[in-house]
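Lab notebook: predicted structure, single chain.

Context: the supervisor wants predicted structures on file for every construct in the current expression panel, including those that have not yet been purified. This is the next one on the list. No modifications to the sequence; it matches the entry in the shared construct table.
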Amino acid sequence: MDAQTLQHVQLFDKCTNFTKAREVQRTGLYPYFKPISQSEDTVVTIEGQPRIMMGSNNYLGLTHHPKVLEASRRALERYGSGCTGSRFLNGTLDLHEQLEARLADFLGKDGALVLSTGYQANLGMISSLVGRSDIVLIDKLDHASIVDGAKMSYGQTERFTHGNLQQLERLLEKHADRGTMVIVDGIYSMEGDIADLPALIALTQKYGAALAVDDAHSIGVLGPKGDGTAAHFGVIDDVDVIVGTFSKSLASIGGFIAASESIIHYLKHHARPLIFSAALPPANTAGVLAAHEVMVQEPERRERLWANTARLQSGMRSLGFEIGPSETPIVPILIGTLENTFRFWRKLFEAGVFTNPVVPPAVPPSECRLRTSLMATHTDEQIDFVLETFSQLGKATGII
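Prediction complete. Output recorded below exactly as produced.
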C-alpha cells in the first residue's frame, strides 16, 4: 500500500468508526431526519400518519398563509427560481433592497443586509468585524453559528457561563484595552429564557465593548411589534448589531444583519458568506416581505402565541414536568438520560406528537430534554391533547 492510499484510509477512519447513530437506529429509537410527506401548519404527516407538530419554529403560523404563498408565486413567475449569483455581483434584486429597507425601519437601525441563511449572517458579521487584535466574548449557550463565526474570525474567543454577568465583567475588565464584541442570543433556543439586555448594556458601555444580539427566536415573539429583544426592553439604540433569520416567525429561509450605515457598508464589502454565496432566491425574499406585512397587520397572532405558551407551560408544570427557566414559546421538557429521552420521544411520536430530542453535546449528558415550541395556530384542543399525552406517557414511564 503506497503512502497516498494509506493517507486516504486514515482520513476516513473517523467515518467508519462512527457507530453511535447506527446503534440507535438499530433499536428503532433514532429520532432524526424524519421525512415529512405533507404539512398542514400545526399537523404534519410522517410515516403515513398525522402528528401534531410541537417542534417547529413557525411561531406565528405563517408558512401556509395565503398572502405569503401568493407573494412567493408571483416572485417565482417574475424573477425565476433563483438569483444564480452573489449579492456582490449579479444577484441583488430590488426585492432584497426593499426587504433591507423594511428591516432597518422595523428594527430602528440605519441599515440592514440580507443574506442567504441566518447561519451565514452570524458567520459574516462576526468574522468580518472581529479582527486579529480583537476579542469576542460569547455565552456558552449561544447558537452554533455564533461559535463558528467566532472561529472564522482572526480574533480571540472566550466564553462565559450562561447568563453569568460577573464572569463576563471579569473578561471585559481583563481585555479592556482591546476591541471587544459581546454577542448573545435574544432568546436561547434550548432553554427558552431571555438575555438580560439592560444589564449587558451597562457592562458593554462601561468597558467600551460592542454588543450584538442574535434575534433568531425573538423576531415575531418579543417586542411591542414583534420587533425583537431590544424593543422588548426598550434599548434599541444601545444594541449595536442585531442579527436574525427568516426561517422562524417569517416563514422562509435567509438571514439579516441590522446596524449603523457604516457597519452595513463595511460588511457589504468584507463579509465572505455574502460575497461568495448565491443570493436569497426571489420567492423566499418575497415571502418574507409578505410574512412581515402579516405580522404587523395581525398582532393578534402574537397575542395568541403567548396565550398558547401560557397554556402549555402551566399545564406541563402542573403535571410535574420540569421545564427549566423557560419564559417564551420555547418549552423544554427535561427528561434526564439519553436513553430515556429517546424512548419517551418514540412513545410520543407513536401517539401522534412530534417533539425535538436534544442530547449531548448540545446539553450535558444528565440534562437531555424534549424541546417543544408553540405556534400561534395551535388550537386549545391540540395543546390539551399534547398535555394529556405527556401526562399518560409520563406516568407510565415514571418520568412524573
